Amino acid sequence: MIIDETKITSFQSIITVVLRELRVAQGIHQAVLSDHCNKPSSFWEKVEAGKTKLDLDTLLRVCRPLDALPSEVISTAEKYRWAMEQRGWSVLLSDIGNADALMDLAPKYWASPGYRFWLASAWVGRTILDTPRFFDNGYAKGWYGLAAVFEFAVDEGFRATQLDEERNRPFIGPPKPGFNF
């Protein structure tokens, strides 16, 4: 089997991205999670950046303020592992350091015009713990409904649309009647 170096991540990185998505969806600051771990305020920022390893104790401590069961987080990460492997990714159980493509792409998504536009639109969707879903209709089967950060990692076309500054400008709309420029 040939491993594509641009499509390699770790299971720990998937869990970290799931936790970050939960934190942002609930409007919880990184320092709050650091506090729950009895660590300095910058601790969780380093975890999300992949600079500090996420261990079991940390996972257990941060799930409480995120109102999530550790088993839900791990189960969701397992579904994303399957979905990513279905799309040609290699998901390792060991730490892979700087070679982790997901930990490289996720921050690019969170800094993208598409993500900023999505945040500004205040669209409320399903929680990441409800994604992805598996389908099998007898003709085709696979995973669908990936959270945007994972879709950004696995789909180059989606990535291009999210990085397109022009496409992700807010719609201002026509001027109101009687409004003079």
Can you describe this structure in just a few lines?
It comes from Cupriavidus malaysiensis. By secondary structure, the protein is mainly alpha-helical. It contains nine helices and four strands.
Mind explaining what this structure looks like?
The chain is mainly alpha-helical and 181 residues long. It has one domain: 434 Repressor (Amino-terminal Domain), CATH 1.10.260. The chain is built from nine helices and four strands, in the order E-H-H-H-H-H-E-H-H-E-E-H-H. The strands form two sheets. Strands 1-2 form a two-stranded parallel ribbon. The protein has a two-stranded antiparallel sheet with strand order 3-4. Helix 6 crosses helix 8 (148-154). It is globular and about 60 Å long. The mean pLDDT is 86.
Basic shape = globular
Strand composition percent? 5-15%
Query: Distance between the terminal alpha carbons, to the nearest Å?
Result: 63 Å
Give the strand order, joined by hyphens, for the main sheet: 1-2
